[in-house]
Design a protein that fits this description.
The chain is of the alpha+beta class. It folds into two domains: about 60 residues; about 100 residues, Glucose Permease (Domain IIA), CATH 2.70.70.10. It has three helices and nine strands; from the N terminus they run H-H-H-E-E-E-E-E-E-E-E-E. Strands 1, 2, 3, 4, 5, 6, 7, 8 and 9 form a nine-stranded antiparallel sheet that branches. The longest helix has 25 residues. Keywords: Membrane, Transmembrane, Transmembrane helix.
Length: about 200
């Protein structure tokens, strides 16, 4: 045990504790400033990540599409309910086909986050957008993509690609295959689309 005078000397004074906290805070602020100046891409990536997660959470809290609530991906074209029609290898059609001239701009039917811009065997060039309620909006057989990349935010009406015949539609009249997936299962998109 320390004698009384040494015990008082060993105990830091209030001034020393405040000074210690201020020095630590100043060092932390300086480190953050240096990181922000020397590595701006890290802060930009962090900001982008936070915004993306916020958008995802916001979308999941919104209501799923309802009957006649979505604009057509090809507004001037006639809509026909081709859901469930027979397809090769015993498959049934899990969407609708909307025919238009090759290169016609395809518009997003919803706001959301671009999940995929790429290719698959059946759909050829495809775009997938996750919209309100977590519904997946699938656009296939594109001729080409618009200037979009995964994790981009799109609004309803934004151009996401152009009508074509890629994938297993090669040689058929140009069209976009449009599908909606709710909880991972395909649902008929026709009732959700506004008819002109």
């Amino acid at each position: 045990m320390l004698p009384a005078d040494e015990h008082q000397r060993a105990k830091p004074t209030l001034l020393r504790r405040v000074l210690s906290v201020l020095i630590r805070a100043a060092v932390l602020v300086m480190l953050l400033f240096i990181l922000d100046k020397l590595l701006p891409s890290i802060s930009q990536q962090t900001q982008s990540f936070v915004v993306s997660k916020w958008q995802q959470l916001s979308l999941l809290q919104q209501a799923l599409p309802t009957e006649d609530s979505l604009p057509s991906p090809l507004p001037e074209q006639n809509l026909t309910d081709t859901w469930g029609a027979a397809r090769s290898q015993g498959r049934s059609h899990e969407g609708i086909d909307i025919f238009a001239a090759r290169g016609t701009p395809i518009q997003s039917t919803t706001q959301g986050i671009v999940r995929k811009v790429g290719e698959n065997n059946l759909g050829g060039r495809v775009v997938v957008i996750v919209g309100p309620g977590g519904a997946g909006h699938y656009y296939a057989h594109l001729e080409d993509y618009a200037d979009i990349t995964p994790n981009d935010w799109v609004n309803a009406g934004d151009i996401i690609g152009y009508v074509g015949d890629s994938g297993n539609a090669k040689g058929t009249p140009p069209h976009v295959h449009y599908g909606i997936y709710i909880n991972g299962s395909a649902v008929n998109p026709y009732p959700f689309l506004q008819k002109n």
